[in-house]
């Protein structure tokens, strides 16, 4: 047996006969990319002097990825049966292109692997354009097939054959949905062509293809046929689906966004109309905003805020019993839609109660447990509005009313809220001119020694003297200042005016320490510390006589912008007080770390001393342990003062001594005496 017959399963006599054939014949090892044998005609075709020289060539470096893929497909087809393929190929012997019509047949090699026997049937004399078009057809990723009118495959280019796999030669076998195939047939009958995106069966499973079918004639027989081109559009559809999801959903929480609220509302109306129950339909809209959430972002940064939002989203999602729709419509704002066929409010109140119940327990974020409470505004279709825009606006109004009432509750919309909205909008417009027109002024709440009732300091409190509305309290405009960003310039004005007044008092013989409230937004503002230091220099003030009141949340963690600002203020010499202590999330380590000077006990503990006295005792003991001054807020009753005196509280503020007053009124109250 010859060396050739050891590598291929062919008798020597067959090999000898093939060697003298006039057409080029060669045996190709697909796996190794080498020729195993060739006759004399093939040697001339491949520009080889000897068979050994041809067999030594590694054909793979000159082989395109498309060709390699086609050869592997051939190998798979050969292994599955006795198929032969005739195609127009361009070969490149020693880099020179030669176009042949080649027939490929599977051939089992001596070691059991599948190779192929190749026959160059006819040298092509076609125009270059024809050769190039055929080559493009063979290399394109577009799947092109030719079927007769009965649906049998007459021709499939390599991409089509690769996609269909074995056993799917018939046109009808491609389609998953019978209805799609019927639509194609109907369009072909009516127009001679058809096009649609449909799911087809492929070697990779069911894939979305764009299928285009046209009537034509078979170039070989002249009989009617249909030319089919297919393009894989699954990736495009997935990208479109992802883009649509992103357009309709909030990326952070995964919940539907504001745009989807309208879609869901319209769906509920449409379903009711189809069922004939539109007259009985009620749609409840719950607008939810988390109380104090802005403070989290301002003090701890947006990364922690995002974690908290994700946790809140999940809790609200868990509150749904089924059938309700929830969306995130803003930073910390959520909306729930629920439909019902009966009147009354009990069904909607149940949803409100479930949503509120999810926030009875603190929300864990990292190492912190946040006490988060919701403010809810409720509007109902059709009573409060017949379109989604009106309903959303009125639910939003009711939510703001819930916040105005202290938060952590729900308010149902009523028409009086529209009037208050107009007042709020008008007030907001006027706020922008208030600073420029010098409409703000400071009042001072005395800080009083518990032991002997002497005034030992004062807290500067801003008031807005409106030319028409009169004196406006901070609770009515400070939230607006925060919403509009005016709190930053207003805060600096308060600090500068307080320092200026302190300088006037000192020039008259009284050095009165002054406390100034600092907002979280100010702490996050660039160059805030530099601005405060510049005000000290301008008014020739010592920072030791200026106390800055901050909230507990600003002390959380060493790596927030607020905490870094606080450290710089302390380094500049300012004294620091923790305002409304006991209602936040501070701990002993942070109190000690930041060298806090004063703890101001929140008025809620003073008003409820009968029930909250153990907590107040604990705060006073903590202040003594940390060598901090304790100041009680909201002292309005002599019994409260007596209780504080017995427990060693140093100072207090409250109506028991006086309301906040003008600088001149405080001067009169001091009587010109020097404060010790």
Quick synopsis:
This protein is α+β, with helices and mostly antiparallel strands. Strands 18-19-21-22-23-24-25-26 form an 8-stranded mixed beta barrel. It has a 5-stranded antiparallel β-sheet with strand order 2-1-5-4-3.
Distance between the termini: 122 Å
Largest sheet: 8 strands, mixed, barrel
- Let me know the CATH homologous superfamily of the largest domain: EAL domain
Count of structural domains = 4
Please give the number of β-strands. 26
CATH class of the largest domain: Alpha Beta
What portion of the residues fall into strands of 2 or more residues?
Answer: 25-35%
CATH topology of the largest domain: TIM Barrel
Which bin fits the share of residues in helices? 40-55%
Note poorly predicted spans. none
Strand line-up across the major sheet: 18-19-21-22-23-24-25-26
What is the alpha-carbon Rg in Å? Answer: 42 Å
C-alpha geometry: elongated
What would CATH call the architecture of the largest domain?
Answer: Alpha-Beta Barrel
Which class best fits the helix and strand makeup? alpha+beta
**Residue-averaged pLDDT, rounded?**
86
Number of alpha- plus pi-helical segments: 25
């Amino acid at each position: 047996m010859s060396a050739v017959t050891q590598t291929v399963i062919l008798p020597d006599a067959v090999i000898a006969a093939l060697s003298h054939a006039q057409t080029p014949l060669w045996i190709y090892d697909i796996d190794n990319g080498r020729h195993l044998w060739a006759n004399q005609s093939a040697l001339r075709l491949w520009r080889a002097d000897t068979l050994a020289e041809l067999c030594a060539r590694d054909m793979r470096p000159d082989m395109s990825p498309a060709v390699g893929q086609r050869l592997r497909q051939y190998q798979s087809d050969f292994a599955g049966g006795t198929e032969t393929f005739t195609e127009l190929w361009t070969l490149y012997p020693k880099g020179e292109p030669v176009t042949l019509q080649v027939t490929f047949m599977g051939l089992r090699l001596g070691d059991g692997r599948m190779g192929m026997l190749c026959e160059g049937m006819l040298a092509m004399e076609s125009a270059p354009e024809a050769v190039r078009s055929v080559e493009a057809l063979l290399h394109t990723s577009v799947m092109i097939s030719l079927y007769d009118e009965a649906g049998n495959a007459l021709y499939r280019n390599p991409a089509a054959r690769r996609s269909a796999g074995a056993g799917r030669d018939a046109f009808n076998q491609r389609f998953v949905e019978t209805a799609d195939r019927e639509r194609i047939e109907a369009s072909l009958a009516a127009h001679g062509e058809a096009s649609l995106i449909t799911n087809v069966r492929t070697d990779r499973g069911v894939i979305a293809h764009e299928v285009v079918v046209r009537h034509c004639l078979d170039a070989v027989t002249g009989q009617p046929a249909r030319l089919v081109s297919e393009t894989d559009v699954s990736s495009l559809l997935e990208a479109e689906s992802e883009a649509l999801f992103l357009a309709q959903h909030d990326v952070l929480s995964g919940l539907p966004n504001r745009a989807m609220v309208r879609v869901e509302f319209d769906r509920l109306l449409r379903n009711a109309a189809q069922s004939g129950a539109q007259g009985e339909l009620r749609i409840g809209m719950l607008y939810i905003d988390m109380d104090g959430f802005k403070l989290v972002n301002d003090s701890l940064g947006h990364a922690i805020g995002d974690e908290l939002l994700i946790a809140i989203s999940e809790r609200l999602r868990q509150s749904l019993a089924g059938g309700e729709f929830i969306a995130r419509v803003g930073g910390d704002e959520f909306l729930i839609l629920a439909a019902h066929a009966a009147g009354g409010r009990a069904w909607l109140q149940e949803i409100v109660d479930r949503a509120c119940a999810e926030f009875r327990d603190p929300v864990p974020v990292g190492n912190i447990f946040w006490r988060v409470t919701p403010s809810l505004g409720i509007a109902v279709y059709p009573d409060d509005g017949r379109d989604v825009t009106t309903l959303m606006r009125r639910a939003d109004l009711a939510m703001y009313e819930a916040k105005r009432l202290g938060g952590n509750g729900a308010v149902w919309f009523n028409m009086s809220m529209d009037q208050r909205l107009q007042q709020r909008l008008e007030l907001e417009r006027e706020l922008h001119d208030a600073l420029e027109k010098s409409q703000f002024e400071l009042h001072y709440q005395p800080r009083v020694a518990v032991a002997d009732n002497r005034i030992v300091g004062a807290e500067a409190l801003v008031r807005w003297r409106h030319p028409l509305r009169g004196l406006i309290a901070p609770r009515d405009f400070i939230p607006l200042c925060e919403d509009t960003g005016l709190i930053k310039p207003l805060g600096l004005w308060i600090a500068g005016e307080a320092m200026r007044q302190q300088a006037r008092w000192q020039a008259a013989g009284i050095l009165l320490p002054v406390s100034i409230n600092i907002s979280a937004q100010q702490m996050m503002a660039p160059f805030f510390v530099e601005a405060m230091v510049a005000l000290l220099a301008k008014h020739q003030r010592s920072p030791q006589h200026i106390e800055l009141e901050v909230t507990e949340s600003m002390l959380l963690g060493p790596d927030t912008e607020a905490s870094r600002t606080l450290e710089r203020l302390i380094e500049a010499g300012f004294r620091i007080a923790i305002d409304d202590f006991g209602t936040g999330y501070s701990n002993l380590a942070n109190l000690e770390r930041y060298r806090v000077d004063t703890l101001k006990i929140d008025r809620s503990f003073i008003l409820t001393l009968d029930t909250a006295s153990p907590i107040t005792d604990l705060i006073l003991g903590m202040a003594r342990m940390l060598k901090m001054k304790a100041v009680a807020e909201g002292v309005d009753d002599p019994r409260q003062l007596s209780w504080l005196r017995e427990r060693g509280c140093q100072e207090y503020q409250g109506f028991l001594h006086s309301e906040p007053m003008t600088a001149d009124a405080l001067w009169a109250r001091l009587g010109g005496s020097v404060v010790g």
